[in-house]
Amino acid sequence: MFKYNSGFDSEFQTEALPNALPPFGNNPQVCPYNLYAEQLSGTAFTVPRKENRRTWMYRTQPSVLHNPFEEVEGGSLSHGPFTRSNGYQISPNQLRWNPLPLPSCSETFVSGLTTIAGEGDPKCKSGLAVHMYTCNRSMINEAMYNSDGDYLIVPETGTLIVQTELGYLEVPPKFICVIPRGIVFKVNVEGGCRGYVLEVFKGHFDLPDLGPIGSNGLANARDFEYPVAAYDEVENVEGKTKEEKYNWKLINKFGGLMFSTERCGTPFNVVAWHGNYSPYRYNLEKFCCINSVTFDHPDPSIYTVLTCKGDDVGTATADFVIFPERWMVMENTFRPPWYHRNCMSEFMGMIWGKYDAKEGFQAGGASLHSCMTPHGPDYKTFKGASECELKPHKFDKGLAFMFETNVILNISEKALAAEHRDVNYFKCWEGIPNAFQGKEEKEGGEGGENKKRKIGP
């Protein structure tokens, strides 16, 4: 059972040994326990103070103890810009995938990552990528950090035990975790695991502004949980050869490419730390829904858990939105999401159960409705919602989520050609009839105005 600190974007201080943190927050000439002080900065030094994110670590050895990095060939993560020459295409079609098959061979979290779509360039710190993962093997003497951006991880099957430089996070389904840029981590698993990853190349995730909602609702800051300091036992390397000392593999996602090196001993050697730049987890069941009690279906933005703000006010690089268990109380209205086209792109996934606005959307599956691509409920859902008795109704049959972005996503050719892609997805709307039965009656003689419009037979 792991311990956590609570409070979004808070300044924490935590130590695994008593008095390991220097007094008064300063770095003395010699740190307690002969530890090394090392700062990790997640923002530029000169950003406004309220936006500055950094953490001081006190570790048994500094993180510089590694051999030169070398590029790793192959793999299914994004490699370079999301262009046709690099294996990506754009498509205005409605796209859907059935659940990604669990691995049939040994895969770690890193080797089991597959890029579905993306846009932008991590080297220019612009855009984002969407990945999925399947894994069944823990990372042993292997760790990773991402120089390109922040990872937001959404498990669907299987619990992840994420060990980071700053401590442990247990992340089962219905939880999410965020691993900020530069944080070293490894993932331990038992059995088959599957889930989704949103990677943002610019900025960091924040809580959305509540605006007219007021001071309460959606995700509360106190429910975000941060790790407490924990470190691996330091190995005795006396008498060992250089090859024996450099016994950890360290992977670095850098500029869209993957690099690896060998490092001397465990990277999880932080005995104490203080700061506001740290990984965290959140229990999606603690989300407080805001919904309509009169009419109309609210915009999905009302279900935003985290947002990565874009350059234009009110337009996000990426929003993480969920559709959880909730009461739906509306009168004289069409309750599910209406048919719509959107200037944003919507990548959806299913964590458990079924989606309330579409048949055939499975847990572990995904869909993509790009900029201005029409979408909405299938006819069975439309007909049922049009004829049902409008009374207070609790939806408790599933948990879906959405990665929403202001960019048009380029889709991996592997994802477009995947066997688990639902190539007949578009047919779910084929049965929608033209049920229009109205007629217009004109009164008032020649040039008269339209006095009455009758709907129905």
TrEMBL record:
Residues 438-450 have a biased composition (Basic and acidic residues). Residues 438-457 are annotated as: Disordered. Signal peptide: none annotated. It comes from the Eukaryota. It is an enzyme of class 1 (oxidoreductase). One of its GO terms (biological process) is L-phenylalanine catabolic process. Residues 3-284 form the Homogentisate 1,2-dioxygenase N-terminal domain. Keywords: Dioxygenase, Iron, Metal-binding, Oxidoreductase, Phenylalanine catabolism, Tyrosine catabolism. Its cofactor is Fe cation. InterPro entries: HgmA_C, HgmA_N, Homogentis_dOase, RmlC-like_jellyroll, RmlC_Cupin_sf. Its EC number is 1.13.11.5. Residues 286-435 form the Homogentisate 1,2-dioxygenase C-terminal domain. One of its GO terms (cellular component) is cytoplasm. Pfam families: HgmA_C, HgmA_N. Homogentisate binds at residues 346, 355, 375. Fe cation binds at residues 340, 375. The active site is at 297 (proton acceptor). Pathway: Amino-acid degradation; L-phenylalanine degradation; acetoacetate and fumarate from L-phenylalanine: step 4/6. One of its GO terms (molecular function) is homogentisate 1,2-dioxygenase activity. Belongs to the homogentisate dioxygenase family. This is homogentisate 1,2-dioxygenase. The lineage of its organism: Eukaryota, Sar, Stramenopiles, Ochrophyta, Bolidophyceae.
